[in-house]
Amino acid sequence: MKVRVHVTLKPGVLDPQGAAVRRSLGALGFDGVEKVRQGKVIELQLAETDATKAEAQVKEMCEKLLANTVIENYAVEIL
Amino acid sequence: MRAAVIQFPGSNCDRDMAVALDKVSGHNKPTQMVWHKESGLPSGLDVIAIPGGFSFGDYLRCGAIAARSPIMRAVIDFANKGGYVLGVCNGFQVLTETGLLPGALMRNSGLKFICKDVDLRVETSASEFTSGYKAGSTINIPVAHHDGNYNADADTLKALNDQDRVAFRYASNPNGSMEDIAGILSENRRVLGMMPHPERLNDPLLGGTDGNPLFESLANAMVSA
Fold first, then answer.
1. pLDDT over 80 (residue B26)
2. pTM over cut 0.90
3. CB contact under 8 A, A65 and B68
4. For the domain that residue A35 is a member of, what is the CATH number?
């Protein structure tokens, strides 16, 4: 089973990389980009075939390693 | 003082740290180097140092993989039993990733790697790490990092301030750190994490000795303990 994890900065946490990307888009002439937030996508291939179990497993992985919950949120997507 | 330095793949300040510790711990008790795959620590340690560098290539997040390595479980136990732990630069990042210190270290606000000497204000002398400095005094110590931008929620910052746990602040903030924070202490004041490198300034030949009081006061405390 394939699972995709989205790791994003929590609202309110400053994202200097996102801000730099926004400025660069502006320099390329893409006007009206009001905000850019940069995150990560992590894809996992699991032996597990039960979607509920897989989701629980991956959430635990997020809590323990994949995300730093001090500054990041995560979302688990079963593909 | 019996000290150990933890080595991860990508650590690059480990030997500097050992030299700084050896200088104060006495030659009969050389600092022990401990590889990250070890599951246990040498017995009788007073201090463990987590050195600077780029453990595991900074993959995923700085310090994230190192924080989950076998040896860190032993380091966490050591700290929880009241042992002294010093984390410098990548070591500070590892300590926040383990949860031994609160908050997180993010990409510098200017996005650039910063390598220069900075002025630090010593915020508290009430710890075995900082008792050799006068609170309020300014010291000059090098920083060399890409991710030193300290971030914590409002409650954490309030707790750090209320409990006098900010050890050092930047006189001139180089990286966007909240409240100019350069180093913080744990609740029991026995774990210190800091981005600047005191181990790099412990000999006049290296350009200064402002890092020495940190190691000297720590060693003195271990002798009298």
1. no
2. yes
3. yes
4. 3.30.1280.10
Q: Could you tell me if A17 lies within 8 Å of chain B, comparing CB atoms?
A: yes
| CB contact set of B159 (below 8 Å; sequence gap of 6+) | B102, B165
Q: Tell me if chain B has a CB within 8 Å of the CB of A14.
A: yes
Calculate mean pLDDT across residues B70-95: 97
- In chain A, the residue whose alpha carbon lies closest to the alpha carbon of B153 is A70
Q: Where in the sequence is the domain holding B135, given as residue range(s)?
A: 3-224
B8-19 per-position pLDDT tens digit: 999 999 999 999
Beta strands at B84-88 and B47-50: parallel, antiparallel or unpaired? parallel
Each residue of B125-146: pLDDT tens digit? 999 999 999 999 999 999 999 9
Contact B96, B105 (CB under 8 A): yes
ipTM comes to 0.86
Q: Give the Cα separation of A24 and A33 in Å (integer).
A: 10
Q: How far is CA B83 from CA B48, B110, B131, B173, in A?
A: 8, 36, 17, 31
**Domain with B28 in it: what CATH number?**
3.40.50.880
Total domains, chain B: 1
Q: Alpha-carbon distance B31 to B34, whole Å?
A: 10
Q: Is A66 on the interface with B (CB under 8 A)?
A: yes
Number of domains in chain A: 1
In chain B, whose CA is at the least distance from the CA of A21?
B111
Mean pLDDT of chain A: 95
HEC readout, B116-139: EEEEEEECCCCCCCCCCCCCCCEE
- The pLDDT of residue B25 is 85
Told to judge if B197 belongs to the known catalytic residues of this protein, a careful annotator would answer yes
| Residue B33, number of CB atoms within 10 A of its CB | 16
Give the domain range for residue A11.
2-78
